[in-house]
Amino acid sequence: MPAVPDVRVQADDFDVGAEIERLHAGRRDVGAVASFLGLCRDEGGRLAALELEHYPGMAEAEIGRVAAEAALRWPDLTAVTVIHRFGRIAPGGRIVLVATASPHRGSAFAAAEFLMDFLKTRAPFWKKEHLAEGGDAGWVAAKSADDEQAGRWRR
Amino acid sequence: MTAPVRLVYFAWVRERIGFADETVELPEHLGTVGDLVAWLAGRGDNFAYALEQPAAIRVALDQMHVAHDEPLGSPREIALFPPMTGG
């Protein structure tokens, strides 16, 4: 049975330690947990905050589809957690957590990277920049490098 | 006319159109997703501005990504938005 992904889209912050603990609590078969934490950076002091807009319903569904694909590609994954926040997030704030568990590190590392690459290009979220000097600088443009990262996984 | 469909817009597509959602009756001649985008662009200056570069517009039918050359079919909800920047 592939791992059943735990996908959450929420305004609230999350506790990274508690989420990692949850991935292996009470189990004896997990040898590796890999995690990626995405944070809001201030772009050299330029930004006051990022505002994340999302498509309610599709955001959860699309992350779920990507996570289900990861669970099929790496069948030894024992658990997958993806949490993505929306709303206004100040520099230093947490935006996204991807955490994967497996018996050995290879699957956990690879699946976490796969998940992040596809979240970037498929999950319906958009970032708007709010400036430290006031006002907004508009919407962050998508990067072609992100499409190339995701393209690496085609097979 | 076909059944009413809910249209939803996000990020700068929403801002340029000037509202987040609406319910419309689509004409029957729209064969593909691209035909829909072209028809929407003709609905006024705000739509023309939002959709001035059709290739930059992403479309989801009932919350599934689709390419512009795919058939439109008869979805209940259609979303238009810019390339995504989450993660």
What labels would you give this structure?
heterodimer; A: 155 residues; alpha+beta; Aldehyde Oxidoreductase, domain 3; 4-stranded mixed β-sheet; 4-stranded antiparallel β-sheet; 4 helices; 33% helix; 33% strand; globular; B: 87 residues; Ubiquitin-like (UB roll); 5-stranded mixed β-sheet; 3 helices; Molybdopterin synthase subunit MoaD (chain B); Beta-grasp_dom_sf (chain B); Mopterin_synth/thiamin_S_b (chain B)
Structure, explained:
The complex is a heterodimer of chains A (155) and B (87). Chain A has 155 residues and is α+β, with helices and mostly antiparallel strands. Chain A has one domain: Aldehyde Oxidoreductase, domain 3 (Alpha-Beta Complex), CATH 3.90.1170. In chain A, 33% of the residues lie in helices and 33% in strands. Chain A has four helices and eight strands, in the order βαββαβββαββα. In chain A, strands 1-4-6-2 form a four-stranded mixed beta sheet, sandwiched between helices. In chain A, α2 runs antiparallel to α3 (105-122) and α3 packs across α4 (144-151). The longest helix of chain A has 18 residues, at 105-122. In chain A, 35% of the residues are buried. Chain B has 87 residues and is an alpha+beta fold. Chain B has a single domain (4-81), classed as Ubiquitin-like (UB roll). Helix content of chain B is 25%, strand content 26%. Chain B has helices at residues 11-17, 33-41, 45-50; strands at residues 4-9, 21-25, 58-61, 64-66, 77-81. A five-stranded mixed beta sheet of chain B has the order 2-1-5-3-4. In chain B, a hairpin with a 2-residue loop joins β3 and β4 (64-66). The interface between A and B is medium-sized, with 29 and 15 residues.
